[in-house]
Amino acid sequence: MWPFICQFIEKLFRETIEPAVRGANNHLSTFSFTKIDIGHQPLRINGVKVYTENVDKRQIILDLQISFVGNCEIDLEIKRYFCRAGVKSIQIHGTMRVILEPLIGDMPLIGALSLFFLRKPLLEINWTGLTNLLDVPGLNGLSDTIILDIISNYLVLPNRITVPLVSEVQIAQLRFPIPKGVLRIHFIEAQDLEGKDTYLKGIVKGKSDPYGIIRVGNQIFQSKVIKENLNPKWNEVYEALVYEHPGQELEIELFDEDPDKDDFLGSLMIDLIEVEKERLLDEWFTLDEVSKGKLHLKLEWLTLMPTADNLDKVLTSIRADKDQANDGLSSALLILYLDSARNLPVSYILKDTLLS
């Protein structure tokens, strides 16, 4: 299948990614791919998990552990600035979800195919001419890391690639599904964190300046920094949309803020299926990948209701908790789909032109 996958990837680059890059910044309006060759080394699938519980009968959900390490040749240019750059190798490792839905009673039995990463994959790109690219006005504030994040997030839930296999399928509903629920995260406090700041050349151990990074898919939140405290209290609240479960997880990492490089203070991974089942979890969690430290979280699973019958009750409840979040707690979800536009006015820009 690899040669045909490469054809699809080239089409994706030219028809989807190239216009998106051009529209992202005025300085990139002349951006284009001049060559796309993904190479002969195929993608590897190291494992497959098929879900049989908590899934709709008209769908099949697969999680693929994928790994790609290959030499490639992708050349790009920005004609306006005579800038050329390229990619000569790519590594990508992560869990890709494949959803086959809806299942139908006629061939090919599957109405459409959706692909996306549940969380940001490990992505490494070996650039050629990256400094040329970063010299372009409007891009000089970017870095290699930021570019990788932009590319990764394009592939991560809720973004998805949906390929219809029959003409009758409702593609918009598959490409932009309604969230399964909302996760309200009360990021409360931590205890007994490691002291990373040292004095007298490391002889005296001090405290830390902890903060947290919270991720659900490509939704990322960062807490405030608590200075010089191994038992910090944040008392912050975040709300994240959950589009897929089983499989999606709440990821939390704690760091000690430093002038140069922030030190790692521990991590936590929580399966959202457990949160949905319990509806409310208020617990102390032991931090992973460190010798000590605990994190206190309160997690609420909020289900989307089709009518506004309970709105008054919800509004009363969140008014009682109004001090828990800087911008308030949500009472409802507004979903807006921007589908297309037609007959837009054409604007012409004439520069240094003498009209007579």
UniProtKB/TrEMBL annotation:
InterPro entries: C2_dom (IPR000008), C2_domain_sf (IPR035892), Ext_Synaptotagmin_C2A (IPR037733), Extended_Synaptotagmin (IPR051634), SMP_LBD (IPR031468), Synaptotagmin_SMP (IPR039010). CDD domains: C2A_C2C_Synaptotagmin_like (cd08391). GO terms for biological process: endoplasmic reticulum-plasma membrane tethering; lipid transport. It is a peripheral membrane protein; Multi-pass membrane protein. The keyword Ribonucleoprotein does not apply. GO terms for molecular function: calcium ion binding; calcium-dependent phospholipid binding; phosphatidylcholine binding; phosphatidylethanolamine binding; phosphatidylinositol binding. Residues 165-285 form the C2 domain. Keywords: Calcium, Cell membrane, Endoplasmic reticulum, Lipid transport, Lipid-binding, Membrane, Metal-binding, Repeat, Transmembrane, Transmembrane helix, Transport. One of its GO terms (cellular component) is endoplasmic reticulum membrane. The keyword Chaperone does not apply. Its main location: membrane. It is found in: Cell membrane; Endoplasmic reticulum membrane. PANTHER family: EXTENDED SYNAPTOTAGMIN-2 (PTHR45761:SF2), EXTENDED SYNAPTOTAGMIN-LIKE PROTEIN 2, ISOFORM C (PTHR45761). Belongs to the extended synaptotagmin family. This is ESYT2 protein. It comes from Phainopepla nitens (Phainopepla). The gene is Esyt2_1.
